[in-house]
Amino acid sequence: MDRDEELLRGRVYGEDHDHPRPGPKPGRVYVELVGGPLDGLLLDVTGWTPAETDAGVALPTELGRYGAGGRATYGPRPGDPRRFDWNGDTP
Q: What are the average pLDDT values for consecutive 10-residue runs of the chain, which has 91 residues?
C-alpha cells in the first residue's frame, strides 16, 4: 500500500470514534497530524486560507499533558504542506 492509500485509511480528528465512517470524505482536503497525542489523525482543512494553514492549530484533546481542557498544538511542516507537526501541549 502506498502512502496516499495509508492516509485514506486514517481517522479524521473530531469524528466520533464509533462513527460508522470516521475516515476521510471525498472532495475534502486533509493534513496528517504527526507526533504528539493526535499522531496519525487527519485534520480537515477544507476551505482554510493560506494564512490559517500557516498559523497552525491548537486542538482540544484529553490525551495531552494537561488532560481535559488541554490542547495539542500543531503547525505545518516546512516543505510538506500535507503534514502538521506537533509543537507541544498547552493548558
A: 50 78 87 95 96 95 86 96 95 91
